Amino acid sequence: MIMPKAFIFDLDGVITDTAELHYQAWKRLADSLGITIDREFNEELKGVGRMESLEKILALDPKQSDLSLERKEALATEKNDHYVDLLGTISEDDILPGITDLLKTIRQQGIKVGLGSASKNATHVLKELKLIDQFDYIVDAAQVSKGKPDPETFTNAADHFGVDYVECIGIEDAPSGVTAVNSADMFSVGVGTAEALPHAEYRVDNTTELDFDSIIQAYQSFGVSAKAE
Ligand code: BG6
Ligand code: MG
């Protein structure tokens, strides 16, 4: 049976749920600018890079349409400073259920584990979660020229491992992330609703359902062998 050579995990929404902390930090910034955002809007920011997220928020208010790049960078820094403060509150207890066991099983099988995140705080978050030693390689926003949905975040990790893309499995919770995995020609595992992730090649509702054997079975049925045909 063909086994994958690498698993590449998204961070926010797969390993831990930092989306709420991003939301709180963006909300405080938006409030200070007189812009209202809610959790529904926050869904649109999942997997989206820092500056692009800021642009989406500013686009809600026509009065903010001509801010200088310098001002935008200052706003993004203000949000990030607050977000990093909030990261001080997370610990191993914030690892999403099922993830620790899954990482352990993958490693026991001798399969490489990579992180593919749009966050420049990825290493910091993994350290707070005490998971840094479980990852063989980390790709964050600072290492790629094009963020998700471009495949570069995922192909960068596979290239580092020296493995074929079809031998990799990417696990993602954001629609743009699943698109990135598919565009990389890897096998996509989506964590979320069928409505949000119709393009995931294998999908679970939440991380508790991320079972190694089931993922491998799906990969062997629909992944590498199907793509090789
Ligand atoms: C992604 C999050 O992982 O990282 C986004 O889903 C976030 O919400 C993006 O905007 C960038 O994160 P950071 O930490 O570099 O601002
Ligand atoms: Mg995510």
Describe the structure.
With 229 residues, the chain is an alpha/beta fold. It contains 10 helices and 6 strands. Helix 1 crosses helix 4 and helix 3 crosses helix 4. The model has no long low-confidence stretch (mean pLDDT 95). The structure holds 6-O-phosphono-beta-D-glucopyranose and magnesium ion. The site of magnesium ion has 9 residues, from loops.
Number of helical runs? 10
How many domains?
A: 2
| Helical content class | 40-55%
Shape field: globular
> What is the CATH T-level topology of the largest domain?
Rossmann fold
Tally of extended strands? Answer: 6
- CATH class label of the largest domain: Alpha Beta
Extract low-pLDDT stretches: none
CATH-level-2 architecture of the largest domain: 3-Layer(aba) Sandwich
Which sequence of strands runs across the widest sheet? 3-2-1-4-5-6
The multimeric state of the shown protein is single chain
Structural class: alpha/beta
| CATH superfamily annotation of the largest domain | HAD superfamily/HAD-like
Distinct ligands, ions and cofactors found in the model: 6-O-phosphono-beta-D-glucopyranose, magnesium ion
Q: What's the SSE pattern?
A: EHHHHHEHEHEHEEHH
**Proportion of strand residues:** 5-15%
Radius of gyration: 18 Å
| Overall residue-averaged pLDDT value | 95
Catalytic activity: beta-D-glucose 1-phosphate = beta-D-glucose 6-phosphate
InterPro entries: B-phosphoglucomutase_hydrolase, Beta-PGM, Beta-PGM-like, HAD-like_sf, HAD-SF_hydro_IA, HAD_sf, PGP-like_dom2
Site (Important for catalytic activity and assists the phosphoryl transfer reaction to Asp8 by balancing charge and orienting the reacting groups): 117, 148
Family: Belongs to the HAD-like hydrolase superfamily. CbbY/CbbZ/Gph/YieH family.
